[in-house]
Design brief:
- The structure holds two protein chains of two kinds.
- Chain A is built from five helices and 28 strands.
- Chain A is α+β, with helices and mostly antiparallel strands.
- The radius of gyration of chain A is 45 Å and the shape is flat.
- In chain A, about 30% of the residues are buried.
- By secondary structure, chain B is of the alpha+beta class.
- Chain B has a single domain (about 15-90), classed as Beta-Lactamase.
- Helices cover about 40% and strands about 30% of the residues of chain B.
- Chain B has two helices and five strands.
- Chain B has a five-stranded antiparallel β-sheet, sandwiched between helices.
- In chain B, a hairpin with a 3-residue loop joins strand 4 and strand 5.
- The radius of gyration of chain B is 14 Å and the shape is globular.
- Classes of the chains: A alpha+beta, B alpha+beta.
- Chains A and B meet through helix 1 and helix 2 of A and helix 1, strand 1, helix 2, strand 4 and strand 5 of B.
- Chain B: Belongs to the GAMAD family.
């Protein structure tokens, strides 16, 4: 459809000029503002409205199920040869290669690539672009402001029914593996489907344990042999000791005979230092400490009953909970008991009675951890009930330093192998405390909540930097602590020595004071006993004593009353005297 | 042909060069100065690496392309010059 507009104009009007004329301005319309019109409108509060002209989108997160990957290598086999060439036949391959070399494309490409490559090679030879400058300068380690610790890895119990991680042991060389013993420590809570296995974890792989150890009964404690990193010894819930060789598989190589083992769960087993590297000893709450040679597990090589009366009476014995052995003092060892007493023993004593040297009491509950300070072997740390205490070997009656009473039970503790004044404790509320008593004595330097459930075990790696803690639900957490807490500070040894000496001296003085007071008391009571004997042999029976006490009491009361009566009389007389005087006067 | 030989000889004579391998697009080593098993291993692995590197570069910018790849390791440096049909791989030990 065409839109056409026809325009006509007279020919004579073409070319005529326009005659413009001036005219004054004319007002055509004037509309004045009418205020009455505003009544039709309501003023609206100005408000900010944001408008965006984009697509509406929403954010959503999805977590996929954990995907188990396993790394594996690939073996390369020669391939890529065209069908007509048999790769095994030398002739055919050579012929093929010669053919390719004659190809023009090949020649051109290679010239180009070759020149490019030469440039890079020459570059490499001229300057080493990856050269390390300032290699000799030592980086001065500065103390960071805040001590800190962070979780590096978490190893969870792969079984459905979770058991407590009761003990951890680091691999002796390089510490790239962690052996964790799992068992259920609650009485009669073991269910049928609870597995007995304990695992060795590789620190890099948290999905799957590197190796499983399958004991006959769940393991309560587990230790790597420091001399041979393939051998582990474990103490189990039923009292037996078993040892594994990781090269031989998951089953124990040998187990101790049930008749000669402990009768209660074995709470601690430690390797001893010996020429053969096969000796170890174990402790359990049945009151015995047994020595084993793993080559012959049918019966223990030595036995010690922790009877404080030194008679070897098993009924009297104290149940052992923790053991301590320092390789620099091979004849001495210490046992922490259920009754809160630390027993120091000498292995080389000739008679069993002499084996128990002395006891240190002061705790109210079982001693869960016992360790000598690696720098000052005369001082040791005990962790029990709600406190951790540091003791000196010379002072028997009390510890030289102790922490305040916490709200939660302390379940394990150990010294840092890198710093003499740092030790770690874990509590039943899932917190890890790092104490540095040269920095702060009242509170831990760092207190971290590792998990919500109770922590049962703790182990520091030999470099003092990593530590593993095991919890009630079988989760072993690997933490890394800041370098300030694991590098030896200047003067630290001297300061720690000074502190230990000062506290030891204080305790000695207190002990001496107590002793003096006790002596005085004794001498006083002895004197009074002598007097009584002079009066007439009073028999030391309880009733007599009570009657005696009653008599004395009444005598004292009567004496007081008489005294008061005399005083009253005297006062009255005085008063009357005064009155008399007054009367006389007046 | 002769120029190719000359180029390769020149490269080989440079200081520190340990081996030269020429691989075609299918992964067949055409020319090599190394023993067969190592050559096969290098050819197979480096082929995959170059493919991956090239696809990475092109994913980021489709106009771009891989021209050279250098893999520096503790013991030596592997230099790869890729092309449409062939790769030139040179292993050099650039210590002074």
């Amino acid at each position: 459809m065409e839109i056409v507009y026809v325009y006509t104009k007279k020919r004579s009007e073409f070319g005529r000029q326009c005659n413009f004329s001036d005219k004054p301005a004319e007002l055509h319309v004037d509309i004045l503002p009418d205020p009455s019109l505003t009544d039709n409108f309501i003023d609206r509060d100005p408000c900010d409205v944001a408008i965006q002209c984009t697509q509406e989108m929403s954010e959503h997160e999805v977590n996929t199920e954990r995907f188990d990957c396993e790394p594996c290598g690939i073996n390369h086999v020669e391939g890529g040869w065209p069908k007509d060439v048999n790769s095994q036949e030398m002739e055919q391959t050579i012929r093929y290669r010669k053919k390719v070399e004659k190809d023009e494309n090949y020649v051109n490409t290679l010239m180009q690539l070759g020149s490019h490559m030469e440039h890079c090679i020459r570059q490499n030879n001229t300057i080493d672009i990856y050269q390390e400058y300032f290699e000799e300068e030592e980086i001065v380690e500065e103390m960071e402001g805040q001590p800190s610790a962070k979780t590096v890895n978490v190893f969870r119990d792969p079984n459905e029914v979770k058991r407590t991680a009761t003990s951890l042991s680091w691999h002796p060389d390089g510490s790239c593996k962690l052996a964790v013993a799992y068992s259920s420590m609650e009485f009669q809570k073991v269910t049928k489907d609870m597995s007995y296995d304990s695992y060795i974890w590789d620190l890099e792989n948290t999905n799957k344990p590197e190796m499983t150890l399958k004991p006959v009964s769940p393991l309560v404690c587990l230790e790597y042999n420091p001399k041979d990193s393939h051998i582990l010894i474990g103490g189990s819930y039923n009292g037996q000791i078993a040892y594994w060789d990781t090269r031989k598989g998951s089953q124990p190589v040998e187990m101790s005979a049930v008749e000669h083992s402990h009768r209660d769960p074995v709470y601690k087993v430690i390797w001893l230092q010996s020429k053969t590297g096969t000796d170890s000893f174990s402790a359990s709450t049945d009151g015995q400490v047994l020595w084993w040679d793993i080559r012959k597990m049918s019966e223990p090589t030595e036995r010690l009953v922790l009877d404080p009366s030194k008679k070897g009476n098993l009924d009297n014995a104290l149940g052992a909970f923790s053991l301590e052995f320092e390789t620099t003092m091979p004849t001495k060892f210490m046992v922490g008991t259920e009754q809160g007493v630390v027993v120091s023993c000498n292995r080389k004593a000739k008679t069993p009675a002499e084996k128990i040297v002395c006891t240190y009491s002061g705790h109210y509950g079982p001693i869960y951890a016992l360790q000598r300070n690696p720098f000052f072997p005369k001082n040791f740390l005990t962790v029990a009930d709600w406190t951790a205490r540091i003791w000196s070997e010379d002072i028997r009656d009390s510890s030289i330093m102790w922490t305040k009473y916490h709200m939660a039970y302390l379940s394990d503790g150990c010294w840092s192998p890198a710093r003499p004044s740092v030790f770690f404790t874990v509590k039943m509320d899932g917190t890890l405390d790092i104490w540095d008593f040269l920095f702060k004595q009242n509170d831990p330097t760092l207190s971290l909540k590792v998990c919500d459930e109770a922590l049962y075990s703790l182990r520091v790696q030999d470099n003092g930097r990593f530590l593993g803690c095991g919890s009630q639900l079988g989760t072993a957490t690997l933490l890394e602590i800041s370098s300030g807490l694991c590098t030896l500070q200047k003067n630290e040894k001297a300061l720690a020595t000074a502190m230990f000496e000062r506290e030891t001296k204080r305790e000695k003085i207190l002990e001496a004071c107590h002793r003096e007071m006790r002596l005085k008391e004794r001498s006083r009571s002895e004197q009074s006993k002598e007097d009584e004997a002079k009066d007439g042999e009073a028999e030391e029976s309880a009733e007599e004593l009570v009657a005696c006490a009653e008599r004395e009491f009444y005598e004292v009361v009567e004496a007081e009353m008489k005294k008061r009566g005399k005083d009253d009389k005297k006062e009255k007389e005085k008063y009357e005297g005064k009155d008399g005087c007054k009367e006389k006067e007046s | 042909m002769a120029e190719v030989e000359e180029t390769l000889k020149r490269i080989q004579s440079q200081k520190g060069v340990q081996a030269i391998i020429i691989v075609n697009a299918e992964g067949i080593p055409v020319k090599t100065t190394l023993d067969n098993s190592s050559t096969v291993q290098y050819a197979g692995l480096i082929h995959q690496l170059v493919m991956k590197a090239r696809s990475t570069v092109r994913d980021i910018d489709p106009q771009n392309d891989l021209t050279f790849l250098r893999v520096r390791s503790k013991k030596n440096e592997i230099m790869i010059a890729p092309d449409k049909d062939y790769f030139l791989i040179v292993i050099q030990n650039p210590t002074e």
